[in-house]
């Protein structure tokens, strides 16, 4: 099986160096500008000379047919969920339903500063989404502002800071604990809040090591940031003891919800000891990942943290109308109360949240539970097929993803990266590699519930073929990919001699 | 039958998979979960068919008044702009939309080259050395720019002009609570005097009232005091106004939504962040760079990653991971289609309409344009007092106009005690809308005069 990329016809354009597709600036010709908008010349006399642009405006001039072919060709160079299985661990690359995109466009022509009486439909949707997320996670209150999981982490740690300050313990609490399996965003978010990070190791079963955690705890601890199931795809076996230990020293437990796709209708983080959890709706609730974003990272919290949530809040009056509870310039800081304030300009990534709402209402309670069930089953089904061909980091039942190690292949001269590149030639997007950091030569595989069984079987067969080739012909694995649009790229040169924008041809 | 309509599994598939795993049910895999917490009843609604969900969302959408449904003058960082038909057709193709961060460059050149082109186009537009691949949106981009200045200067005082958008200033204040930065808000005219000991001076041009600002003087003062100058800018303004890079700004930030992205009630948007070359290693976010593959073909990769959280963890320049890539690709497609002339035309039309409208409104009894000095494509209007109290003029007028289905911003105590209207024009603003606004303000003011004279 080879990756199917359309052959792009030679455009006839001479590029500066051999290239798949010219840059816009290489197909520019003066006078080719389109006619999408025209007029307004009288404006030039209205702008004082001191302010008028004198710097050249070096945007390329192109015809619409050129632009359409250019970006269509570029799109064809991408691998995507719409083109094939994308088992990127911790990213939940499930199918993105098209109805979600269509209904989002019903709300495209709404300005965020519109009077509340003119956006009751949008506010109703947001309020209902908050309610559904609270029920799903077993939490009491929700903010929809964060644009992504990392911004939700930052929001929550700011709230933890405010919570401790309110209790008069702000000065002494300055450490955030993260396990060694944590996403890099966790320590980075804690550091943005001015806190020190203490890393705790994992135990031989792939859990956070309880003894080490207890040794690290003290009354200077802000809280613990914990992903569950963790990034090894394993449910923390002593989760309640972990949460109790943190609470015993007055700390709070943050749930990183990147792996929530394992828990829909299976268990609620609010019942397990977490004080809050974020949801990556671009993972769990099927909103498209957008080549890197946007996502949305709603943050769901327990009652004691409610007062610290970012404002404005969406509040419902007795007549069933929705209002925004906001603060103004004449009310600093009293108008905010205990709220940390807004973490973005407006209410949230609304277009993404509409898609998540639509997904949740489409599946309903039973459909969501089935999705998690199937995701767990698919991961264990793949693990069962691959277990004897690769080392398994921690060999117990996984949740919705699992981590293999290419350590055995490494001894044959084939690294996790080589396995990943060989998968490209087999027609699959590679899994996440070299993460979590605690597993050498890690391959983190998350099939999701939407891949047909035939595709799972084909992926397993490809992985097994690569393991065989590592034994018999490691050089061929190391030479991959050969069927992708490009061979391996020179990342060292890119970093050493950064070329971060085009040079206009002279 | 499947309860999840997007599942491909039949019951036979599931039975075969369970058998391969060697279990009877998925619950056999869930022994680590406390029994009392397993499989809770959630109380969520039952599922819907695609036809039913479409109708349900249409019924929610019907409760909104869309921008195009009547006279509309809201704006600021988010603007109603013309979006060429080809923009969503290209940018929302499944190959872009359903991919993720280009971790595997060999099969992600579409994303990577598009973002490289976005960085190039934004650098041209702002006359800056380098742009990153996107921030979440305008307000948090301003905050991250301030963090960047704090890292570079080692100082902790952030000075921000009061004529920067209220929502941006508030976002900066929230972010500043993380590292406990000192935030000083002063009017733009007092920025220069506040430069001493500052990490940065943050100025917006055109400002929240559309006012044109002498950014060069502020940048000079910042540099003389060892501080950075951060300019909050707007994409279309740069087609006609001297860009940040030519005015001495060290970092340029702004909301990129006007570049072909729908208003969509608050997001998703595009945070623009660009800087001088010397500062690039302190930049937050992802950056795409040019390189070549093993066969010598040009290619693109995420680069300078040693700034980022997945490598540096708590020492990273930012925690940002998922960004707004599809919005950056959208902006690249928009700029490619519009070209320099299209962008200039869109900007000029907003300017021309705003000035024509200001001329008419400023001539109404009791009304005057209240932007200080020259303005761009929006302006502040002082209106007669309609009610007692601190919001009796602009905000009361905004409410009275709403009754007439005319949408205009009232400053609503977001800019000190200023109580005016803010009126934004773009290429989408029609003569009919302008006539309606003038007539409505005239009639509201006239009825007020009648009430007063009747007393």
Core attributes:
heterodimer, A: 506 residues, alpha/beta, Aspartate Aminotransferase, domain 2, Aspartate Aminotransferase, domain 1, 2 domains, 7-stranded mixed beta sheet, 4-stranded antiparallel beta sheet, 34% helix, B: 455 residues, 13 strands, globular
Helix content of chain A: 25-40%
Number of domains of chain B: 2
CATH superfamily of the largest domain in chain A: Type I PLP-dependent aspartate aminotransferase-like (Major domain)
Shape of chain A: globular
Helix and strand topology:
The complex is a heterodimer of chains A (506) and B (455).
Chain A: H1 64-76, H2 98-104, H3 120-137, E1 141-143, H4 149-166, E2 175-179, H5 185-192, E3 196-200, H6 210-216, E4 221-227, H7 239-248, E5 252-256, H8 269-272, E6 276-278, H9 281-284, E7 299-301, E8 313-316, E9 322-325, H10 350-386, E10 391-392, E11 402-405, H11 407-411, H12 416-425, E12 432-433, E13 442-445, H13 453-472, H14 474-478, H15 491-496
Parallel strand pairs in A: 2-3, 2-4, 4-5, 5-6
Antiparallel strand pairs in A: 1-7, 6-7, 8-9, 10-11, 11-13, 12-13
Helix pairs in contact in A: 2-10, 3-10, 4-5, 10-13
Chain B: H1 11-21, H2 50-61, H3 86-91, H4 94-97, H5 109-126, E1 130-131, H6 138-153, E2 157-161, H7 166-176, E3 182-186, E4 198-204, H8 215-224, E5 228-233, H9 237-240, H10 244-247, E6 251-255, E7 271-275, E8 287-292, E9 298-303, H11 309-312, H12 325-362, E10 368-369, E11 378-382, H13 394-403, E12 409-410, E13 421-424, H14 431-454
Parallel strand pairs in B: 2-3, 2-4, 4-5, 5-6
Antiparallel strand pairs in B: 1-7, 6-7, 8-9, 10-11, 11-13, 12-13
Helix pairs in contact in B: 5-12, 6-7
Explained architecture:
The complex is a heterodimer of chains A (506) and B (455). The longest helix of chain A is centred in the last third of the chain and has 37 residues, at 350-386. Chain A is an alpha/beta fold. In chain A, 34% of the residues lie in helices and 10% in strands. Chain A is globular and about 70 Å long. Chain A has 2 domains: 98-357, Aspartate Aminotransferase, domain 2 (3-Layer(aba) Sandwich); 372-492, Alpha-Beta Complex (Aspartate Aminotransferase, domain 1), CATH 3.90.1150. Chain A has 15 helices and 13 strands. A 7-stranded mixed beta sheet of chain A has the order 1-7-6-5-4-2-3, sandwiched between helices. Chain B has 455 residues and is of the alpha/beta class. In chain B, 38% of the residues lie in helices and 13% in strands. The longest helix of chain B is centred in the last third of the chain and has 38 residues, at 325-362. The termini of chain B are far apart. The mean pLDDT of chain B is 96. At the A-B interface, helix 1, helix 2, helix 3, helix 4 and helix 5 of A face helix 1, helix 2, helix 3, helix 4 and helix 5 of B.
């Amino acid at each position: 099986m080879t990756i199917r990329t359309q052959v792009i016809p030679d455009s006839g354009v001479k590029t500066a160096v051999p290239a798949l597709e010219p840059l816009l600036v290489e197909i520019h010709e003066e006078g080719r500008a389109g006619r999408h908008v025209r007029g307004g010349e009288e404006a030039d006399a209205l702008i004082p000379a001191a302010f008028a642009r004198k710097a050249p405006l070096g945007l390329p001039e192109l015809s619409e047919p050129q632009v359409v072919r250019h970006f269509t060709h570029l799109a064809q160079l991408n691998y995507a969920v719409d083109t094939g299985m994308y088992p990127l661990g911790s990213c939940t690359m499930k199918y993105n339903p098209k109805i979600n995109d269509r209904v989002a466009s019903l709300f495209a022509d709404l300005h965020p500063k519109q009077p509340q009486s003119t956006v009751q439909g949008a506010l109703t949707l947001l309020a209902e989404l908050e309610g559904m997320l609270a029920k799903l996670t077993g939490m009491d209150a929700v903010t929809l502002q964060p644009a992504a999981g990392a911004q939700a982490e930052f929001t929550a740690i700011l709230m933890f800071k405010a919570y401790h300050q309110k209790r008069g313990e702000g000065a002494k609490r300055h450490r955030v604990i993260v396990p060694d399996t944590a996403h890099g965003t966790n320590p980075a978010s804690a550091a943005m809040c001015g806190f020190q990070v203490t890393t705790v190791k994992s135990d031989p079963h792939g859990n956070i090591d309880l003894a080490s955690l207890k040794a690290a705890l003290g009354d200077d601890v802000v809280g613990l940031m914990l992903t569950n199931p963790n990034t090894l795809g394993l449910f923390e076996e002593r989760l309640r003891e972990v949460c109790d230990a943190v609470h015993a020293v007055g700390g709070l437990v943050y749930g990183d919800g990147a792996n929530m796709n394992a828990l829909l209708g299976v268990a609620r983080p609010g019942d397990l000891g977490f004080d809050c959890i974020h949801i990556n709706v671009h993972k769990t609730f099927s909103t498209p990942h957008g080549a890197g974003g946007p996502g949305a990272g709603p943050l769901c919290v327990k009652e004691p943290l409610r007062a610290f949530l970012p404002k404005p809040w969406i509040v419902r009056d007795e007549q069933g109308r929705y209002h925004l509870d906001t603060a103004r310039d004449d009310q600093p800081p009293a108008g905010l109360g205990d709220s940390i304030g807004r973490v973005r300009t407006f209410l949230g990534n609304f277009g993404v949240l509409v898609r998540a709402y639509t997904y949740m209402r489409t599946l309903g309670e039973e459909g969501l539970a089935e999705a998690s069930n199937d995701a767990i089953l698919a991961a264990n089904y793949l693990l069962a097929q691959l277990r004897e061909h690769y080392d398994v980091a921690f060999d117990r039942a996984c949740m919705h993803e699992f981590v293999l190690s290419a350590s055995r292949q490494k001894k044959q001269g084939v690294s996790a990266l080589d396995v990943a590149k060989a998968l490209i030639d087999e027609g699959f997007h590679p899994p996440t590699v070299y993460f979590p950091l605690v597993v050498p030569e890690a391959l983190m595989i998350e099939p999701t519930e939407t891949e047909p069984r035939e595709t799972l079987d084909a992926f397993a067969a490809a992985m097994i073929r690569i393991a065989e080739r590592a034994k018999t012909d490691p050089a061929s694995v190391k030479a991959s990919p050969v069927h992708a649009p490009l061979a391996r790229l020179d990342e060292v040169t890119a970093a050493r001699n950064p070329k971060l924008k085009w040079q206009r041809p002279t | 039958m499947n309860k999840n309509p997007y599942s491909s599994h039949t019951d036979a598939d599931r039975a075969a998979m369970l058998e391969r795993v060697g279990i009877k049910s998925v619950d056999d895999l869930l022994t680590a979960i406390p029994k009392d917490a397993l499989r809770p009843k959630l109380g969520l609604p039952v599922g819907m068919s695609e036809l039913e969900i479409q109708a349900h969302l249409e019924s929610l959408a019907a409760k909104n008044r869309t921008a195009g449904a009547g006279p509309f003058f809201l704006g600021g960082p988010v603007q109603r702009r013309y979006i060429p038909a080809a923009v969503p057709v290209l940018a929302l193709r499944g190959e872009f939309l359903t991919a993720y961060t280009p971790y595997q460059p060999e099969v992600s050149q579409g994303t990577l080259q598009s973002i490289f082109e976005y960085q190039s186009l934004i650098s041209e537009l702002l006359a800056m050395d380098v742009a990153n691949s996107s921030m979440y949106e305008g307000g948090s981009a301003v905050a991250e720019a301030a963090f960047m200045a704090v890292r570079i200067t080692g100082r902790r005082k952030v000075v921000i002009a009061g004529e920067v958008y209220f929502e941006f200033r508030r976002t900066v204040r929230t972010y500043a609570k993380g590292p406990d930065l000192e935030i000083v808000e002063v009017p733009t005219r007092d920025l220069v005097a506040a430069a001493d000991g500052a990490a940065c001076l943050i100025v917006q041009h055109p400002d929240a009232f559309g006012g044109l600002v002498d950014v060069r003087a502020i940048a000079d003062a910042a540099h003389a005091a060892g501080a950075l100058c951060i300019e909050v800018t707007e994409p279309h303004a740069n087609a006609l106004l001297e860009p940040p890079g030519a005015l001495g700004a060290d970092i340029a930030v702004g909301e990129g939504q006007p570049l072909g992205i729908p208003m969509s009630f608050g997001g998703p948007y595009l945070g623009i962040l660009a800087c001088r070359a010397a500062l690039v290693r302190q930049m937050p976010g992802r950056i795409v760079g040019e390189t070549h593959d093993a066969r010598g073909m040009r290619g693109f990769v995420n680069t300078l990653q040693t700034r980022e959280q997945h490598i540096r963890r708590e020492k990273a320049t930012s925690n940002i991971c998922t960004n707004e890539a599809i919005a950056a690709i959208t902006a690249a497609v928009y700029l490619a289609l519009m070209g320099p002339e299209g962008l200039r035309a869109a900007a000029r039309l907003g300017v021309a309409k705003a000035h024509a409208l200001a001329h008419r409104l400023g001539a109404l009894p009791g009304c005057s344009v209240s932007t200080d000095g020259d303005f761009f494509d929006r302006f502040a209007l002082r209106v007669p007092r309609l009610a007692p109290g601190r919001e009796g003029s602009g905000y009361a007028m905004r409410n009275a106009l709403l009754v007439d289905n005319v949408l205009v911003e009232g400053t609503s105590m977001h800019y000190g005690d200023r109580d005016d209207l803010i009126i934004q024009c773009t290429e989408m603003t029609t003569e009919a809308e302008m006539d309606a606004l003038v007539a409505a303000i005239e009639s509201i003011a006239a009825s007020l005069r009648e009430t007063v004279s009747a007393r």
